[in-house]
Structures are given as structure tokens and as C-alpha cells.
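Continuing from the previous page of notes. For each protein in this section, the sequence appears first, followed by its C-alpha cells. Read the first protein now.
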Amino acid sequence: QMKVRSKLKRQVQTRMTAAQHRELKQLMTDEPHFTRLTDQLSASVGDTDGFSDRDRTTVQRVDRAIRQYERQNERQHHLYANVTLPPGTKLSDYEIPPTVHLDRWTGASHNLHEISGADLNDETYALEITTRRGMYLGHSDSGPSTEHLLPRGMAFEVEKIYETRWKGPDGSSGTRRVIRLREVANKQDEEQS
């Protein structure tokens, strides 16, 4: 599956502009840049009107790159992403199925062990998402990376909260608290179908 996803990724990348390549690369390799932009998107609930021209252009280019991949993709992705609950909330607040909105791009992985490790705190949970949305950025040819970038503006309902064990290829292991989300179609998705 990784090879199929990588093949599609390369096909889409050949159609991307040099500017889209540059923006996507910077976003995925410069963590402070990624954090600053995604925090801005969350604070503005995805509205880029108050962004600088440079940041708005970056958002538009990355959004277009993700959409290009999504148009070609026919596969489901089973993904995991780290999340810290908003201040003032607790896990029990999510037991009555609320709608969870991701107004920011969300970096994810196809493998739980890739987002797990000793540097996580007690307030960090793993989101479990099955979707065909987003863009695979992994490197099946050169390593075990299964990175994935989810688009902004997705909505989910909490399906289940559970604890599971994970084990990495290096023998490391641990336990994670997982929030399984079920994607809720939004009006824009329904109009495009």
C-alpha cells in the first residue's frame, strides 16, 4: 500500500507548480512555520482574510496541492495524529458525541508508533481517523515514513475512546489513549460529489 500511495504522490507532484512544491516542503520541514500557520488557522477558524499576503498565498498553495492529490486518490487512509485537548476540557467532555472540527492542517501518520514516544505528555491523545482525504507524504522507497497531511476544515464525530498498545520496528512500545473519529461530510464535500 505504501508503494501505491507513493506512486500517486509522485504523479501528483509532477503536476504541482514549483511554488506549491516549495510551500509544501517548507511546511513539512520547518516545524515553527507549520505551528505558526496552523495556530493562525485555528485562531481564525480557517478564515485567511486577516493573514498577511505571504501567509494567505502559502495557505492557498498548500490547499491546492492537497486537493490535487485528493482528486486522484481512490484509497482510504487509516491515520493517527497527536492532539492536545483545548484548555478547560477533559476527555469525558467527548464521550457524548460532539462534532470535532479541525480548522487547521493536521499532520498524521499511517502508523501509531510513528507519532508515539517518550516525549509525549499525559494530555496528548492519538486521534484515529479513516478517510480518503488529505495527501500522503511518506517515503516508501527510502524508509518507513508514512506521513500524511490532512486538509483544514474537516468535521468528525467521536466514535470511541479507548486505550491501546503500540510497538515500533525498533522494539520500543507503549500505551496510547486513542480518540476514534468518524468523518462527517460537510456541505462543500456533498456539493462536489
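Done with the first. The second protein uses the same format. Note its length before scrolling.
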Amino acid sequence: EGLVRVNYITFKDELGKLATASKDFKKVLYDGWKDGDQNLGKVTDWGPDTILGIDSGTFLGEAMKHDALALQNKKSHEALQTSDWGEATRQMYNLLDYVTSDYLHCNIVVTALPLIVEDDSGVGRYYPNFITKNFSANMVGRFFNNIVRVYGKKDGSFHIRTVTDGRFGLKVEAKMDAEIPADLSVLLKTIVA
């Protein structure tokens, strides 16, 4: 029943060409969701009954790197220079600042692959992978009030971990169990309530 209300657009960069995915995503985000005959309007006009899903922050970070190269008229998968890394990180910061600002009234769900970041003593901890290790470990948590981990068990079931277990930097504002079944609607109802 809920799938009829799901709309999506896939953005990708072609190998060996100037990048467009990041630019195309930002156009939808800032100018409005239009895809063929589909027009969902501006994301800023969406209400709390709507979810903007970004799958994933990890690949969005890759698109930001490609876009930083395109600004220098370089192809999407060339090696990044220090200034390219800086530009890509700036773009990611600005985008996350926008989607978590008061301009948007909808819910935001962003997936990300885990990235291990070691501290000075060599102890590793996992964070959502957004663009660089430093950004992942030190900035992502500033933008999002809730960071959870979805994982599978040997029995084939999936669960959501809501409390830090020493390996993953997790947090949830609402009071809830440390582990719940992987049901996004339950998680969102608890967090938004």
C-alpha cells in the first residue's frame, strides 16, 4: 500500500565524463522535484507527513567529489587535489546544513555505509561514511539528532540499534529500546512523537 506513495530519482555520474549527479540532485532539492510528468513541488513545501530519503550519504559524498572536479573542468573519476577535497567537503556541509535547517519541514532519512575511524591510540569506531573520515567522525552527528544502525542477525532478521555500543557512534533523542525490529515506521513514530 505504501509503495504507491514512493517516488524516486536516481542520479549518477558517468565514468570519464564531467559530473552531473550532485548538480542534478541539488536542482531537485532547491528548485523542486520534477521527473518527467511527476511534479512533487519544492521540498521546502513538503510537510511532516513526508520523508525525503537520501540513499546514500556515502554515494552523495562521492558525487560531491566528482562535482568538485567538474568545477575544475576535470572528469568525474580523476584524482582529487587538496582544493578539490575542500570544495567537496564544503558542498557536503552546505547541503546537510540546508536539509536539516528550518527551511525543510519534512522528515529526512539518510542512509550511509559504515566507516571505521581510529583515534590516536588506534581504537576504531564506526561512523556514517560522508565524504572524509574527519567529516564523518566530527560533523555528521552535529547535523542529525538521530543516528541508528540497521543490521542483520544470523537468523535472517534485521534490527535497528538505537544506543551506542562502543563501536558505533549512535544516538536517538526519544526514549526507546536499545534494539528494535527494522521497521522504519516504528522508529519514525517514536522519534517524531
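What the second structure shows: Helices lie at 21-31, 57-71, 82-99, 133-138, 140-143, 184-192. The chain has six helices and nine strands. We return to this in next week's lecture.
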